[in-house]
Amino acid sequence: MSKLDLTQYEKKIIVRNMQDKDIEQIFELQKVCFPDMDPWKREHLESHLTHFAEGQFVVEFEGKIIGSCSSLIVNFDEYDDKHTWDDITDEGYITNHDPDGYNLYGIEVMVHPDYRGMKIGKRLYEARKELARSLNLKSIIIGGRIPNYHKHEDEMSPREYVEEVRNQNIYDPVLTFQIMNGFTVMRINPDYLPDDEQSLKYATLMEWNNIDYRARTKRYFKTSHPVRIMVIQYMMKNIDSFEEFAKQCEYYVDVAADYGSDFAVFPEIFTTQLMSFLEEKVPSQAVRKLSSYTEEYIEMFTHLAVKYNVNIIGGSHFVEEEDQIYNISYLFRRDGTIEKQYKIHVTPNERTWWGIQPGDAVKVFDTDCGKIAIQICYDIQFPELARYAVDQGANIIFVPFCTDDRQGYLRVRYCAQARAVENQVYTVIAGTVGNLTQVENMDIQYAQSGIFTPSDFEFARDGIIGECNPNVETVVVGDVDLEILRRQRKSGTVRQIRDRRRDLFDLRFKIDTEEKPERT
């Protein structure tokens, strides 16, 4: 007898994290598992993968998705005892996922009926438990359906039904399974899932405690998380060399460090000050000469960020790439690393005089003070960009700008304040003042730089943390509190992020801003 090829008998079952390619199969799975309930939408599952990919699991059997589960992390003590599924999941989008939370909250488990009996549900629950252990979370909490309760509603209350199931006098396919997997009942919540007719909208709130949990001394409820920002309202005046420009920049970074600032913010295209000593009067050629200083500009600000221990938003600078000129803002982190954001919307003036080309990716950057975004001048006037950045986790949007008159300045200011209100985010605008009498198309400047907040009781009365006096060279220093922002997003007078009607409208970029390769 020849040696058997055992691979022909194998039937592979795999538990793994959900991927974008699985979404269509999950839709089909949900139709089979919950035919009478509202299904996921693609934007729900995409949001799950964006905010907490490691908490989403599927079971794959012979190339087919036969089970799935979704979850997020929360600080459960911050939620009302009688919360609903919509409350705890932000209506299914889990944008309230808190990486610093204590509890893993399970929001759905599905197993294809044809594969029940293969312990698919148990495999998914074990994956959740292993995740809770690896992340050192206190517990797993679930809001469990009681789908057989409708058969007993005339003879017993929900509490009595749960007791009968716990005593094994009644079998419930969900509650019995959860009890067998080590979960204990905490309470019964009414109106948990409005479309769960079998459970009559009731759910059992259940918990599995992680006995391996070890308290961490650095994990605590914060009363505040201040981030100090210094905005530089930069004076544009004629200079004779790059060294003179560098000396002015270092002065301001030094001041920012003296004030204990986390960020120093310079204005848009303030490097055009270098044109005052470049012997080129044709604007389209002058910007190319200006671009030749890109390496010196980057080296200077990288050095200053590290030397003074300040994250620097380096205004913006005209950069030549592949024979095209772009308006780029650089983030110089105080650990020496660098990021960049291309200006996406180019003004008619930039296009006509300098031939500036638009970028096509909205970036959100990690810093030691949380996630931030940079939107250069005109970009803040397009609300979709700020909304996308906040959806990706941005807490502060920095807006370097350059405007020549009050009308232009007010467009930037009003839109920055609107974005702060619309998206419950801090916005910071930094502009140029003065004039460059010898530089074509950079004649005059107008600005009143400032730091803005959402509009609610927790913030400054007028939504203004601080602002410069108009049209003079100066700075403004202010603290933004990320903990207040986090709490206000969750329980403010209004909650624009959570209350957005995602069932009516959504935001999606045609170009994948995460996967598009960076220009070099």
From TrEMBL:
<feature type="domain" description="N-acetyltransferase">
    <location>
        <begin position="13"/>
        <end position="211"/>
    </location>
</feature>
<dbReference type="GO" id="GO:0016787">
    <property type="term" value="F:hydrolase activity"/>
</dbReference>
<feature type="domain" description="CN hydrolase">
    <location>
        <begin position="227"/>
        <end position="482"/>
    </location>
</feature>
<protein>
    <submittedName>
        <fullName>Hydrolase YhcX</fullName>
    </submittedName>
</protein>
<dbReference type="InterPro" id="IPR001110">
    <property type="entry name" value="UPF0012_CS"/>
</dbReference>
<dbReference type="InterPro" id="IPR036526">
    <property type="entry name" value="C-N_Hydrolase_sf"/>
</dbReference>
<dbReference type="Pfam" id="PF00795">
    <property type="entry name" value="CN_hydrolase"/>
</dbReference>
<keyword id="KW-0378">Hydrolase</keyword>
<comment type="similarity">
    <text>Belongs to the carbon-nitrogen hydrolase superfamily. NIT1/NIT2 family.</text>
</comment>
<dbReference type="Pfam" id="PF00583">
    <property type="entry name" value="Acetyltransf_1"/>
</dbReference>
<dbReference type="InterPro" id="IPR003010">
    <property type="entry name" value="C-N_Hydrolase"/>
</dbReference>
<dbReference type="InterPro" id="IPR016181">
    <property type="entry name" value="Acyl_CoA_acyltransferase"/>
</dbReference>
<dbReference type="GO" id="GO:0016747">
    <property type="term" value="F:acyltransferase activity, transferring groups other than amino-acyl groups"/>
</dbReference>
<dbReference type="InterPro" id="IPR000182">
    <property type="entry name" value="GNAT_dom"/>
</dbReference>
